[in-house]
């Protein structure tokens, strides 16, 4: 399994009058090559769960394994290393660095880990930009790109380390319908071609329905985990 959660809980301000139990006994597994939509109303715990899975935050209890590695008890250095080796991120806001070229933005995760990228790593970054249709923009600064093009750069950046797991938080939230469809199509394509597991948080039911599997959260609890084609009917009765 790429991802395993067993009775994971997240509590903010535990033991104080402001205690907030955000995630309740979350258990799930994600296999290599799965494309999963994580859905739920605002405040349901989606972003908190994604942050915990992405090792950007720690759970209060329960177990989290990434590629079989138990993350509880890891030092911050160990968590950072596992995150950089195994997980790619795509956010609603691209977090690109306008002072760098499009190619350098894609190579940034490798630069942070190794310093100057090797010729092989650079070639792979160029390959990914070609795959997302941005060959002609490799040497341009990212502030000259449209929103959809910037999100394509972010997807290439997430894949440049060849991660086993890609986490995407509302990756089409700022895009028009046509561009959102095109960007989501890239996720579908790379999911198949690279066999990386992808978990996408989205409010867009058109896009979540294109994922074979949907996980729905309500008040920090999983209320549905199954085929996306069946999720609306099941949850209408919850």
Automatic annotation (TrEMBL):
GO cellular component: plasma membrane; transmembrane transporter complex
UniProt entry keywords in alphabetical sequence: ATP-binding, Lipoprotein, Nucleotide-binding, Transport
SMART domains to which the protein is assigned, alphabetical: AAA
Pfam families reported for this sequence: ABC_tran
Primary location: membrane
Topology in membrane: Multi-pass membrane protein
InterPro entries: AAA+_ATPase, ABC_transporter-like_ATP-bd, ABC_transporter-like_CS, MacB-like_ATP-bd, P-loop_NTPase
Subcellular locations according to the entry: Cell inner membrane
Entry-linked CDD domains: ABC_MJ0796_LolCDE_FtsE
Top-level taxon: Bacteria
GO molecular function terms noted in the UniProt entry: ATP binding; ATP hydrolysis activity; transmembrane transporter activity
Domain ABC transporter: 3-238
Family: Belongs to the ABC transporter superfamily. Macrolide exporter (TC 3.A.1.122) family.
Protein name: Lipoprotein-releasing system ATP-binding protein
Originating species: Marinobacter antarcticus
């Amino acid at each position: 399994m790429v991802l395993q959660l067993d009775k994971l809980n997240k509590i903010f301000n535990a033991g104080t009058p402001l205690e907030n139990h955000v995630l309740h006994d979350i258990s799930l597994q994600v296999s290599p090559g799965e494309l999963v939509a994580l859905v739920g109303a605002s405040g349901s715990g989606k972003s908190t769960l994604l942050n915990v899975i992405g090792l950007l935050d720690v759970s209060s209890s329960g177990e989290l394994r990434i590629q079989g590695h138990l993350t509880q008890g890891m030092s911050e250095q160990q968590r950072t290393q596992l995150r950089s080796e195994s997980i790619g991120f795509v956010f609603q806001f691209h977090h690109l660095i306008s002072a760098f070229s499009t190619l350098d933005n894609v190579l940034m995760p490798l630069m942070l880990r190794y310093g100057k990228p090797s010729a092989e790593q650079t070639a792979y970054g160029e390959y990914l930009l070609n795959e997302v249709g941005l060959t002609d923009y490799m040497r341009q600064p990212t502030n000259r790109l449209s929103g959809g093009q910037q999100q394509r750069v972010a997807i290439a950046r997430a894949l440049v380390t060849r991660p086993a797991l890609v986490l995407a938080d509302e990756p089409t939230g700022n895009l028009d319908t046509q561009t959102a469809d095109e960007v989501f199509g890239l996720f579908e394509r790379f999911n198949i071609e690279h066999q990386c597991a992808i978990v996408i948080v989205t409010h867009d039911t058109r896009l979540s329905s294109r994922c074979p599997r949907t996980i729905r959260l309500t008040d920090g609890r999983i209320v549905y985990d199954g085929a996306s084609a069946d999720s609306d009917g099941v949850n209408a009765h919850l």
